[in-house]
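Record 1 of the preview.
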Amino acid sequence: MTIFTVTEPFGVDIFRNDRGRLIRKEEGKKFFKNHRKHKESTGCYLFCKRVGGGILPYYIGKSTTGFENEVFNSDNREKYSQVVVEYGIGTPVLIFVVHPVKPGLNNNGHIKELENFLIYYGKKANPRLLNVQNIGSAKINDNWGIKGVHNCKNAHAPKNIEIKFRKMMGL
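->
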């Protein structure tokens, strides 16, 4: 069984000038310079905004080759910048749902199922979620889970971040 883990939210820097605010390639490089641990990790990522005491997802994606290769690509930076401009209040953050490091290949099928699951619940949590694909399905599979969040019979009590993640996603 593949057990994914949820990270704390990590702040994302914004470039500001007299023309506005956006997230450039440089902010992406700086992010992974500060969060080296997750450069080569795989799984799903959620671009969110922290507003008040809560967090709201705005875009959900997956990476099977390493978060550094996917999270701040040009298409995603455009989406993140749109969120920063159109929904100005709040602090942009990234949350990773990380595939376990095991010998051999990633289970890309489980990562895809996880992405569909997160998009389905993310759209319910925030109808303004930017994802347009895979919004109508959440295949529940007993072969994967998210530690402390979903389909995971843990001996430990859920951590605070796992509880907040469940609340954010409406699980």
